[in-house]
Amino acid sequence: MRVQLTIALSGLLALPAHSAEINLNLQIPQLNVAEYHRPYVAIWVEGPDQKAAANLAVWYSQKATNEGAGTKWLPDLRQWWRRSGRTLKVPVDGVTGPTRPVGKHALQFTDSNPELAALPAGDYTLVVEAAREVGGRELLKIPFKWRGASNGSAQGSSELGLVTLASKP
Amino acid sequence: MKQTLKFAALALALSLPLAAQAHKAWLQPSQTVLAGNNPWVTVDAAVSNDLFYFNHVPLKTDNLVITAPDGSQVAAQNSATGKYRSVFDVELKQTGTYRIGVVNDYVVGQWDEDGKPKRWRGTAAEFATGVPKDAKNLQVSQSISRVETFVTNGSPNNTALKPSGKGLELVPVTHPNDLFAGDEAKFRMQIDGKPAPGIDVEIVRGNTRYRNAQDEIKVKTDAKGEFTVTWPEAGMYWLEATSEDKKTSVPQARQRRVGYVATLEVLPQ
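ok -> structure tokens follow
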């Protein structure tokens, strides 16, 4: 009896160490342009029906203005706006944040994220969309397994660089 | 000869309120998908052959009705009418979908007085006082035309899209601010609140100046009054449907013309 309990407890204790996670490396490329603004970026998980299943990150200008803290331009993230953004009340804790500079950004999302915690295991697509003021827009998709092991990558050609994904159960 | 010409001009003028054959009436919003604190749209209103260019006459905005997302009516601001276009602004204080429309509901009477043709235009209620009871060769026609567009601040909703039940109207099955190139959209046409089967609908993309053909899309409503369209590419589209019936509210009127125009923005994927 006592032995069983110990095993059960150790099972519980071991769980956080094995929490499912998505590790993402996202490159914002250096661009040779006269007027540069950091891109707005949205990262989300979509199901096979293309519906947004979880918002992971939304980076937009946080500067307070009369027009709203950068929110006026959120619809420029066209697909994200359609799939999720327009029904989302920003800011969202742990999801929305300021725009990021040129360079490589390592991001980790685990099942402690409330939206991911509720996401059933299975096949999904990670979507990264970037839109830049006086610039362009680009959208990349990487299929992956949630609560499963998978690797994937997508190479951007304009607003995004290389994006790599590794998921663990 | 001169008299014939005058009549021809008069006939043309009479057909203009509906602009069915002659020219295209339209509203063009500066954008249709908005966000932020109190965004504004500015809307151009004109009548022309070419979409969406101001080169004929402005669209009169006397009967402009702007329905807010909660169903209330809001006023246009900074209205002005120039040589070729009218323009007005709408402040989008609420989140949701706004319907912006010009609705003209008129009775037109033509008759002879002392050997000269006379013409009167007004509402059905004014008809009895506007046209003499003993008018000779009286011809009366009635028309209801609706020229509209839709814009959404934040998340779309359907309150403002509720049909009025008067004349020819478009009832969205697909939300009019949720249109994307390559996607199929579905709409229903109604006359006086009832499904209108067999109605011809014409859809033309803007920027007509930069191509050699109209590239119009022609569809007909099915038994349920519904039609679908798959948007070939992104752009601002003009949609028109017209019909005629005998459901007049003035007994002297022999026929009623109903017309509908919408400007719809289709976004790229």
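Confidence is low (pLDDT under 50) at residues 1-20 of chain B.
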